[in-house]
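Question thread 4412

I'm putting together a teaching handout and wanted feedback from people who do this every day. The idea is simple: show students a protein as raw sequence, then show them the structure tokens that encode its fold, then repeat with a second protein so they can compare. Below is the first pair exactly as I plan to print it.
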Amino acid sequence: MEALGRRVLVAAFDGWNDAGEAASSAITALGATGARTPVHTVDPEMYFDYQYTRPHFTMDADGHRTLKWPETTITRPTRRTRGTQLWLLGGVEPARTWQAFAAELVDVALREDVTGFVALGSMMSDVPHTRPISVFAGSENERVRDELGLDRSMYEGPVGILSVLTQAAETAGIPTVSLWASVPHYVAGHTPSPKATLALLDRLEDTTGARIDRGDLATQAAAWEASIDAAAAEDDEMTEYIRQLEHTRDTWDSPEASGDAIAQEFERYLRRGGDGPTKPGRDGPFR
């Protein structure tokens, strides 16, 4: 995995880039697997709109209240080990001054001698929950694409902070990869989506070579899928709709079609501003 090196920064943000909380949950899972040291936290006054992302009170075990402000933080592993190590960048998508935000975080990455950057995102899609979660893997870096067999997105349109950070990292000489999981749009009431989180972590391990502890995510994913099965069993229309999605997905999974289909769905998602369809049928992206 020489294309990304051995010191890889993995980023995910709450909000627009995080359908089913799949990407932010992946960062949480990664952060829970070992001791970590904070490297840098942005000044919330610079980047957040408190009417949109409000501070909130938390209560400790002694009953003391603390005002917690929205944040974005980079952490690194406390212990140095052999193989690939993951720096983590997580928090809230900023409301303003995105170029300054990206420049600040890329400067920190350069100071930490980070050798690669991976952006994690998730999008609502017309896909069935009963099949493996699709993960679009792409890169703007030709060497990374060649070494890892990734695609290059031809998308044009509005983007989130992950795309801004990815471009800033590439400009600074840090090779990048983007991983986006497709979350079934009809499972909005079953958030978080551990099956999508698990798919992102699986692809992240394949991409970086880092050893990633999944904890009990496989059990959570099975329970999540079973809960949707139970809900769908009581709704004939939903059951039929899922069957249609399964048929479409099985067609995509043919060797000659799967990569193009996933890439096209990713681009459709971005074109509609990150909003998944509200109901099955004609509101979906495939029309």
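The second pair follows. I'd like the answer to focus on this one:
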Amino acid sequence: MNDVLLTGTQPTKPRFSFEVFPARSGAAALALGNAVQHLAAEAPGFIAVTYGANGSHRNASLDLLKHIRDHTSALPLAHLTTVNTSRDELKATIHRILDLGVHDFLALVGDPPKGLGLDDPVFRDALSAAELVELIAEARAERPPLTSVGRTAVAAYPNGHPLSRSRGADLEWLAAKQQAGAQFAITQLFFHADEFLEFVADARRAGVTMPIIPGLMPVATSAQLRKVSALAGQPAPKELERAIERVGGYAPDLGVAHTIELSQAILAESIDSLHLYTFNRHEQVLAVLRELGLLTAKASPGHAQ
């Protein structure tokens, strides 16, 4: 079902998509441009571009969306967050993104601005993701006919949202986002296949029918593993953590191997899409996809190391 939704064609093999974030320096921008070209060459379902809380890095996000739209054959998908942003500001940003020729969105509340907690009014009073889904639909309806027929995605949390009271509350939120018009969900990171598969099974029992795409990231360093652990809300696998530390904290091959194993377990259960968080590098994610037999472009030097 994921494949039909994301490509509009009869599924033949699992699909994949990527996430990148705006570069923060000139050198990083050059490296990111190179990575995007490699990623786009493999015909992903889309390349998502992050968008910081409170609209931080907004212009950089829009520039990157435009670059993907104008200089690759990949479909860009724009993250959009609501924290500390008014409804009118959000709608103006939606129209600005649509004016770039970008029609697909990931609707998020986002993180509170630096120095503020989850209980701060800036966070509590932000539009919900479901309300943002509705606002995106409203903005599309204001466009000329047939000029914006994009898709809207939302986030899902296999190990629970930080503000969630329970698994049941998480699923109620996800169902509400579907009811608001969301067409598919992308998960936050996780370390074990059962965490994702059990979440999907519970979501189906709760009436969530839209595709739920697993989000995966092949870590390269101990620092990345700690970051993923914080995002996942779960401790990292001890064996992976120790193995990376034994070789000095840098071991992209170990992160790739773990993600391949995780992907194989998920794909074996008839899941037909993967979303790969790239950390703005193409080598590791393409190494995962190559091992899974999912790449479509001919291998070329530099695609994976």
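Top answer:
Good format. For the second protein you could add a caption like this: The two ends are 32 Å apart (CA to CA). Residues 1-10, 299-305 have pLDDT under 50 and may be disordered.
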